[in-house]
């Protein structure tokens, strides 16, 4: 019976040791996060620009709906990809690093959810009456903008001066 107890002891010791420090440095974490957020911002910008062009050319509510659903679904997916990459970056090895990582993840999760909610709202709109359809789109976009604004993360208020400096200095964040 000593073998299971020893295995348990080694497993417990391994868990304790793996939870002590060892996260990425502030510079590494900031660089990884910026590498995740750069493509996300570019994708959102590109999708928005394309949707605006398509909306100007759309002649029916059905075409507008298709374009908007594509835009919002793409933005939702891009936000999830960025969120997953930030999560994979781990927790920076700085004081309060776990709180900062949670803030970033919470912000990207809220953005992803806002795009998903807007996509579902537009997807659920009937296109038979153009006025009703576009009124519904306006409500969905207003809600999206409000939720997006609430989810914004102000990196100037990061509690770690080490991380603030890293975000200011690493090339990936410039």
Question: Could you please describe the fold and organization of this structure?
Answer:
This protein has helices at residues 2-18, 26-57, 61-88, 97-123, 130-151, 161-169. The chain has one domain. The chain is an all-alpha fold. It is elongated, with a radius of gyration of 22 Å.
Write the layout of secondary structure elements.
Layout: H1 2-18, H2 26-57, H3 61-88, H4 97-123, H5 130-151, H6 161-169
Global morphology: elongated
Oligomer: single chain
Share in β-strands: under 5%
Catalogue the unreliable spans. 1-20
**Tally of strands:** 0
Helix and strand content put the structural class at mainly alpha
Query: Can you count the helices?
Result: 6
Question: Roughly how many Å is the radius of gyration?
Answer: 22 Å
**Ends distance:** 58 Å
Residues in helix, % = over 70%
What's the rounded overall pLDDT mean?
85
Main sheet characteristics: none
How many domain regions?
1
Task: Write the element-wise H/E pattern from the N-terminal end onward.
Answer: HHHHHH
């Amino acid at each position: 019976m000593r073998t299971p107890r020893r295995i348990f002891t080694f497993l417990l010791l391994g868990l304790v040791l793996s939870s002590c420090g060892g996260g990425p440095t502030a510079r590494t974490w900031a660089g990884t996060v910026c590498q995740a957020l750069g493509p996300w911002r570019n994708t959102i910008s590109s999708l928005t620009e394309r949707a605006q062009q398509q909306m100007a050319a759309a002649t029916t509510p059905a075409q507008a709906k298709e374009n908007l659903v594509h835009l919002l679904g793409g933005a939702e997916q891009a936000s999830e990809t960025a969120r997953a990459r930030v999560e994979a970056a781990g927790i920076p090895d700085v004081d309060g690093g776990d709180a900062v990582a949670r803030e970033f993840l919470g912000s990207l999760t809220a953005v992803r959810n806002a795009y998903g909610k807007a996509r579902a709202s537009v997807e659920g709109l009937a296109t038979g009456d153009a006025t009703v359809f576009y009124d519904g789109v306006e409500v969905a976009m207003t809600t999206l903008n409000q939720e997006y604004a609430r989810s914004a993360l102000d990196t100037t208020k990061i509690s770690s001066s080490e991380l603030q400096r890293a975000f200011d200095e690493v090339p990936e964040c410039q």
